[in-house]
Amino acid sequence: MGWGWSKCRVAGLVLLAGQAVAQAESGAPLTIQITYRDAQQLEVSYAPQQACQRVRLSKENRDDEGLRDGWQALNNCARLEGDQIVWKQAANAANCVARFAVPVTKKIYHHYQPALPLGQAVLLHTSNYAVDNTCGNSRYVLNAPAVATGGQAVPAQLVLDTGIKERDSQPALLLPDAAVRFEGTPFYADPDVPPATVTLIRDVADHTVQHLRERLPSVPFQMPMIAAASIRDGGPTYFNGNAQDILQLAFFNWPLTMDDGGQRTVSQFVAHEFSHRFQMYPAGVASYAEERLIHEGGAEFLRWMTSLHQGWLTPQQAAADVDNALASCLITAGQRSLRSLSRAEVDGGRIGYVCGLPAYVYALTASAPPGHAYARLDAYYRRLLQAQQTPSAQKTPVDFAGMMECGDQADCQPRHLPRLLRSDFRMQQVWQDWLSASPFAVSAAPTAEQQHEMLVSAIGQLMREDCSGMRNLYPQKDRIVLSGLPQCQRLRAEVSVTQIEGLPYSGDRRTLPAMVSACRDRQEVRLGLAQGQTLTLQCRQPLTMFSAFFQLQTDAALKVLQP
């Protein structure tokens, strides 16, 4: 394990090795200082250089997820009121620095984490501490025995300057030991990550980067630092990541020894996050759902193609990936149009991932001219890069649908992606019209895995009804864990469901029809818990079962996508 670094430009960083920060000039910015106290707690302070009564934290506490519930005031200067810091009297840095203790937590929030443990180290993201400019522009001062970001590390202190907007979207790693060693690739793993997992991560990262650098030469790639964490909190098994300059790979309650399925899951997870490093962010999207489909679906497609090329997926496994993703897309949102989905529905249903992968696969197999998937994506990203460098008045929107389905064909009009991304047609109807006439797909009865996905979705619908639209569940092999939420009526505490209507949660095709019938006939469903109790949840809305999904014709599709 240990440390590594890459010689890459780190925009907007002023690296200070233990020296004092220069005195603020007249009109100096508000200083946000984040200090490593120990592996359980950080301290953040806000020191304005001018009279200031309140500032608003830029990252909203969405969906009552408790983003700053654990913050505690360390002096009598200011308090938290919702998403605002309120000084008790007009303040300046000389007499009133607002100070708060911030817990290091294993809890996963939307997008980036405020303080995630990696052994004794702490991974943070400045977006969780950013404020508006009510009290002037901001700068960040990060203090720890060693601080790392963007593949570089320094002892004692790191300052993010005010002139760079990226300062409000910057990951950093606070380390308890100043004796940092630099060797190998830019990688930090906490001591609980098994060596075999570290080796697998390195191998997948290196081969993904090598492959996509060759296939997407127009994309300006910068190698991130990897931060891997093994986190045990007594809960279900899952993983969470992001692809910023410190690429986070967090494995929750992951087995110390993995079988082939576990290794394949890790490979796909790592390949997906590194695929993000070869993307340009989509421009000109009409909705959050469209942006997520293009972005997350694009990373899914790149990891899918890379995995096929590297042998991490067999053609049969790759086809099942596409089939199951499309099934999940239809189960989650088939009765709605993409553009009608709320932000919470998009995030909660992983819409970008599950609708995005089949959208890329089927659009590029049927494109005009067909094939050359990497060349088409490279041209799309090249145009996005050119658009970023063009003055606003001269910019021409880059049409994702047109590039994927038509490329540079002047006499071609995209047919399917515009209906999927921006129309009011139900997604089920869009996919039915698209694939019923496609030579690359056939209709087929649901597989056992797809049947199980419908069951999980139905349980999620019950939880949303009980919890004011919120859902937080973790499917396991023989049970499904429903996390308690304060807005729920019955599900205020975590429960582990092993039976539904007296039938096993997993492995029995009778379970879903029994659940649908109970919902229709009694407007309630009985859940059997691991501890032996029975919990009954109301079911006001009918549950949906699909009688058929689509299967990718693997040989025909791969001949086009990988000529």
Brief characterization of the structure:
By secondary structure, the protein is an alpha+beta fold. 32% of the residues lie in helices and 24% in strands. Mean pLDDT is 87; it is low at 1-26.
Keywords:
single chain, 563 residues, six-stranded antiparallel beta sheet, 32% helix, globular, disordered N terminus
Portion in strands: 15-25%
User: Pairing-aware structural class of the strands and helices?
Assistant: alpha+beta
**Radius of gyration over alpha carbons?**
25 Å
> How far is the N terminus from the C terminus?
39 Å
Helix fraction by DSSP (H/I, runs of at least 4): 25-40%
- Most strands sheet: 10 strands, mixed
Oligomer: single chain
Instruction: Please state the overall shape, judged from the principal axes of the Cα atoms.
Output: globular
Total count of helical runs of at least 4 residues = 13
Count of β-strands? 25
